[in-house]
Design brief:
Blueprint lengths: L3 E3 L5 E3 L9 E8 L9 E8 L12 E8 L3 E8 L9 E8 L12 E10 L3 E8 L9 E8 L12 E8 L6 E8 L9 E8 L15 E6 L2 E5 L2 E3 L2 H7 L4 E3 L2 E3 L6 E3 L5 E9 L6 E4 L4 E8 L6 E4 L7 E3 L2 E5 L13 E3 L2 E5 L6 E3 L5 E9 L6 E3 L5 E8 L15 E8 L15 E8 L6 E2 L6 E8 L6 E2 L6 E9 L6 E2 L7 E8 L15 E8 L15 E8 L14 E9 L6 H11 L7 E4 L11
Parallel strand pairs: 15-17, 16-18, 17-20, 18-20, 19-21, 20-22, 21-23, 22-24, 22-25, 24-26, 25-27, 27-29, 28-30, 29-31, 31-32, 32-33, 33-35, 34-36, 35-37, 36-38, 37-39, 39-40, 40-41, 41-42, 42-43
Antiparallel strand pairs: 1-2, 3-4, 4-5, 6-7, 7-8, 8-15, 9-10, 10-11, 12-13, 13-14
Length: 613
Amino acid sequence: MALSLVAGGCAPIDLGVFSPQPKALSRVVPEPPGAACARGGQAVRTGLDVNGDDTLGDDEVTSTEYLCAGTVLVRTETLAPGDACPTGGQVTKAGQDLDGDGVLADAEVTRELTACTRVAPVLTRLRPVSWTPSCSSGATMLEAGEDVDGNGALNDAEVQASYGFCMVDSTRVRSAVHPEPAGGRCGQAGARVDAWPDMNDDGQRQPDTEPLTTLTVCQPTRVHDGDYLVGSAADLAALQGVTRVDGDLVITSETLDVLGLPELIVVMGVVRVTNSPRLAHVSLPHLRFARSVELQQNPALETVSIGRTGGPPVFVDEDVVVDGAPKLASLEGLTPLNPRRHLRVLNLPQLQTLSFPHITHLSLNLTVQGNDALRSMSLPNLVFATTVWVTHNAALESLSGLATLQSADQLLIGALPALTSLSGLDGLTFLRELIVAECAGLKAVTIPHLTRVEQLGIQDNPSLESVSGMPRLQVSWLMRLSGNAVLHELKDLSSISAMHTLDISRNPALKDLSALGRLVRLEQLGVYQNILLEDLSGLAGLREVASLTVAHNPALRNLGMEALVSTTEFFDVRSNPLLPTCQAQRLADRVHTGAPPSRIIDDNDDQATCLNP
């Protein structure tokens, strides 16, 4: 069944399967020596699987790329200072050794890249953090790097090294920058930052009690200005040695098996690895900053590593997206990533766990969806995200990985058949919208510290028995309990006093509404198709309702609601076969002030009598 929900009064959110589109396929076949490849090689044919047989037929081929035999060679040339590079640089040329002579001839060059050398002052900065891999509580983070943009301040994109001083105030951290000679920590010339905690505030380091920490900043920075597309081994070879790309880095290749860029530190644009059918391994071990990181539709991808696991965070200014990698079983190599806007992990059928320990806030979305083997997730420091969608993860048993989440605009928990409780959400205090839907194994909805929700939807959970244990919860706009086949207990909801809409429908085991007895005012009340519900006396405190609808409740015998004093817009009581018609009429006479057409009493028990009041 497709999961379709109406959220926030807008169009339905459809998390079902979209209409299938023809898949992109490729086929690699031997290419004999000839016009395309003088020494032979491979032909990579691509196209769309129009007939849906999972095979790329000759009539479906739309393009052919040739990978000719020959070793990829690289040649570098020093670039003197000039218009292209004011402080000099180098030109890297790459191509295949077609004639096999071991020398890259001009005619064999297929990719040329200019990288300008930038030598900039080394700066440091201090900032407080709530957590680091080595500090379980507060720390002061020392960060160092080159001021590449020359603005006099160290930006996130310029940070090359960092260290967290656990439980040390920033006023106590001392540091000094020193030159690092060629052949030292960097291999080439660079700088080092010596730092220590000055615990006695005397300005001098005490070796026995104030340990020295050294950060290394390698210089010079080699910058490629502009976007860079990697489609072949020659393209990748030309990029070796570049430390910074001032643009997007896009990898889309029919032929690459391995992507490794060990010297790359900064990508000012997006790192996008997409639609590479043979790519199995990605390694960017020294990356420290990117605007976004996107890995999408890479069917052979088995391992990916960005940054250093257990090391400092990799700042990602916007998004991290991992989608459509059926062989990828682990995201351990992505744990350093710290996106600020989106984190999306989708359609990874082999993934069992995910962990992103550095994330504290997401200005937009956290989406974990369609990961069939995912059993647990860990975001141990996430405090806020605008929306959190955890849906269609068939094996996910617990939400304990969200234990520190305090608030969100929308939390959607849907189609999680292995989930039995919401016990991992104990830190939540505020949500604009909470939707819990189509969780086949869910037994109870309890979020003990939740105090305020604008919209609450609990619907179509076939094993749900109880909604309880939320004594401080207030709902301001909508509360919908719908389609929960065995829901029989509402309990400890005593702070709910007023809202716009209460919808209780299609709950065949629900008999008692007394947990909502302190509810005083509603704009809309709808009670539909609750098979065992015999009376509404549990709504004992309800005084004002603008529109009231009670319909298709086969066991309903008594409206109750003795405290009700007014319905102003709509009074509709119909198709309740055991409810005396006279009782509905008497209540309408007493409370309804709307025009006659807004009063509908029909198809109830016309034969029953009512005692005189």
